[in-house]
Design brief:
Blueprint lengths: L1 E8 L5 H12 L4 E6 L4 E8 L3 E8 L3 H5 L1 H11 L3 E8 L4 H7 L4 E6 L5 E7 L1 H6 L5 E6 L15 E8 L2 H8 L4 H4 L3 E5 L6 E9 L2 E4 L1
Parallel strand pairs: 1-4, 5-8, 9-10
Antiparallel strand pairs: 1-5, 2-3, 3-4, 6-7, 7-8, 9-11, 11-12
């Protein structure tokens, strides 16, 4: 169980403009990810150090986005103005979470221009929609060299999260102490005043700490 990535739903001016602002703040380049055909979304990727990454995601005008919880979550966050949508934990085995949540993980994929395919299974988006402080979970499949953090070597490090919520609630959701997947990422927990969820993420960059 480890922290894998954070997801940012694009703002009203769309995926490219939103990504450009974030990448400029961090002083790095973003890379075009691709379309998630099962979810009706597409993303841009900013690789980070320590096998982590940041994705900026946009919902598409596609029937899949109306049916898939991930598409629904992106649409709702973007409709509210955009911003941090959630965080994701990678695990080696999703079966305990499938048993506990009473539903099966769903497959995800996107193809690279050269035909290679990134594939995974994920679960927990319905939980994130209901309570945005909790992470969703995924299991990567296929070639590990295709992990989005490997697009290029990055020195930008995710150092801390500010989350409206509680460590106890997220620990209950994960079934293990929340500190386990976070490891080197500090968390400042704040009492929710409104909707819980990620309020800010701080990164260590060549120009110093940057909070988005």
């Amino acid at each position: 169980m480890r922290m894998d990535h954070v997801s940012y739903a694009c703002e009203r001016d769309g995926l490219l403009a939103t990504t450009e602002r974030i990448s400029a703040a961090l002083g790095v380049d973003a890379v075009r990810g691709g379309v998630h055909p099962r979810f009706g979304t597409r993303n841009m990727i900013i690789p980070l150090a320590d096998n982590k990454y940041l994705e900026v995601v946009e919902v598409l005008d596609h029937p899949a986005s109306d049916k898939a919880p991930f598409g629904q979550a992106v649409r709702a966050r973007s409709a509210a103005g955009g911003g941090w949508m959630g965080w994701c934990v990678a695990v080696d085995d999703l079966a305990p979470f499938e048993d506990r949540l009473g539903r099966a993980a769903v497959p995800g994929n996107r193809k690279f221009p050269d035909g290679r395919e990134l594939v995974w299974q994920q679960i927990g988006i319905l939980g994130l929609i209901a309570d945005p402080q909790v992470p969703y979970l995924l299991k990567w499949e296929g070639d590990p060299s295709l992990h989005p953090s490997k697009v290029y070597e990055s020195d930008v490090k995710m150092s801390s999260l500010t989350i409206a919520g509680s460590a106890e609630r997220v620990t209950e959701w994960l079934g293990e102490p929340v500190e386990k997947p976070l490891e080197d990422v500090a968390v400042q927990w704040m009492a929710p005043h409104g909707t819980p969820g990620i309020l800010a993420v701080t990164f260590e960059t060549a120009s110093g700490a940057v909070t988005i």
